[in-house]
Amino acid sequence: MNSRQLILENLCVNRPKTEPMLPDIPLFDTPVPVDRVAKFKEAVVSMGGEIIHVQAQGLDAALKKYTDEAKVICSHVPEIKGNLEITGDTQPTDLADVDVGIVRASFAVAETGSVCLTDADFGINSLGYLPQHLIVLVDPEDIVYNLHHAYRRSEGKKHAYMAFHTGPSATADIEGILIHGAQGVRSLSVILQPRLQKKSEGK
């Protein structure tokens, strides 16, 4: 028996018989705001995002500001039609010239104004980063209070990944000049829109 095998054998023999108990992490939600939707809207705007209000004219009218001048619109939601469809053959680089990308978040976080997007929400991951403008649909019922609640949800375990997007891409160089869109979307807008079909958590 060589030294490596001896070390591994000793580790196995002396390994604790039971798994150590993990600490119970609190949710840090006291006091919880009465209106999570209002808190979420406020946080989105404070992080450089925009809330798009849908009036009686419907979604198409609400998006007119973005879609009128857009040449390429890629939508991964059934509520809004685009002119670039994601298929099984779509490559990430195929979305390089997308003006407007439209997705639906799995859920959102009121405290930070973040939207949680999984690989299933994107269809193809570059849809969250290459478009000039990203529009995210959020069901008001899918808004949790803070990140502690967010990480207790099952999306992170059921999908290949999940990403929290908080406002548009922004970076500041050493002189403190803020630039939007250098490493991602130039603008991130949120539409509070109930799902066409309700889902169970984490689906």
From TrEMBL:
InterPro entries from the UniProt entry: FTHF_cligase-like_sf, LUD_dom, NagB/RpiA_transferase-like
Any Pfam family the entry gives: LUD_dom
Organism, scientific name: Zymomonas mobilis subsp. pomaceae (strain ATCC 29192 / DSM 22645 / JCM 10191 / CCUG 17912 / NBRC 13757 / NCIMB 11200 / NRRL B-4491 / Barker I)
Domain of life, per lineage: Bacteria
Name used for this protein in its record: LUD domain-containing protein
Domain LUD: 95-192
